[in-house]
Amino acid sequence: MESHIREMQKTILNNDELALIFNLINLFKYLDHCKQIEERHKKSFIASKLKEGTAYEDLAKQFYSMRNNLLEIGNMKQLKERYKQYCINHPNVRYISNADKFLMVFSMDKYEPVRLAIADFLKLELHSDGYTLKLANQAKDLAKRGNVKLEVRNETNLFQDKEEDLVDMSKLKYLASTLLEVGS
Fold first, then answer.
1. Can you give the pTM of this predicted structure?
2. Residue 96 and residue 112: Cα distance in Å, rounded?
3. Residue 126: what are its φ and ψ, rounded to 5°?
4. If 0-12 CB within 10 Å is exposed, 13-18 middle and 19+ buried, where does residue 100 land?
5. CA 93 to the chain's CA centroid
6. How many CA within 13 A on the CB side of residue 81?
7. Burial letters 107-128, b for 16+ CB under 10 A, else e
8. Can you spell out the DSSP letters for 98-157?
9. Angle at 117 (CA atoms; ends 182, 83), nearest 5 degrees
10. What is the C-alpha separation between 166 and 169, in angstroms, rounded?
11. Deepest of 37, 119, 173, 181, by most Cβ within 10 A of its Cβ?
12. At a CB cut-off of 8 Å and minimum separation 6, what does 117 contact?
């Protein structure tokens, strides 16, 4: 019984974790923000390794290999095969032969880019792989259950108004660093 309770406590989120997740979902419901945080994570990874004298292209490959393994995306060949099979199994999803990674992932699960972006954000804040996955997976599940409306970008157009003061980045960084100190 005690081990069951300890196991449940590992999956239950505290108030700070919930606050962080809700703020991150609010930020990454805009898909262009998802792409931006991936690029920031990649640049940070490469910058931290450039001192070692490795070529930029090799570091970019290392980054995507590390990220794809952590997030269980697989390599590009595996992703393309899964995407192709998904399109065969779901005739309402149109197969695009030259689709990029983002489009393939989004086509198979529209909330997956939110999970990936939150993982990128948390890895930038130096959280452990296990903790990063825990929060990213929980956030994706909450976004999906809450039927969060995803938009391409935060802008005013015929269908939406631009959200001002979307997320306080200093608050996000504070929450993330507080959780890091607690022992993520």
1. 0.81
2. 18
3. 70, 30
4. exposed
5. 23
6. 6
7. bbeebbbbbbbbbbbbbbbebe
8. T--HHHHHHHH-TTHHHHHHHHHHHHHTT--HHHHHHHHHHHHHHHHHTTPPPBSSS--S
9. 135
10. 9
11. 119
12. 24, 28, 33, 34, 37, 38
Residue recorded with tokens 């959200």: 163
Question: Alpha-carbon distance 121 to 81, whole Å?
Answer: 28
Sequence letter at residue 116: L
Residue type, 52: E
With tokens 């989120």, the residue in question is 13
With a pLDDT cut of 90, the percent of the chain lying above it is 52
Cα atoms in the 13 Å half-sphere on the side-chain side of 122: 31
Residue pair 52/176 in contact by the 8 Å Cβ criterion: no
pLDDT digits (tens, 9 = 90+) for 66-102: 999 999 998 899 999 999 999 999 999 999 999 999 9
> CB of 148 within 8 A of CB of 29?
yes
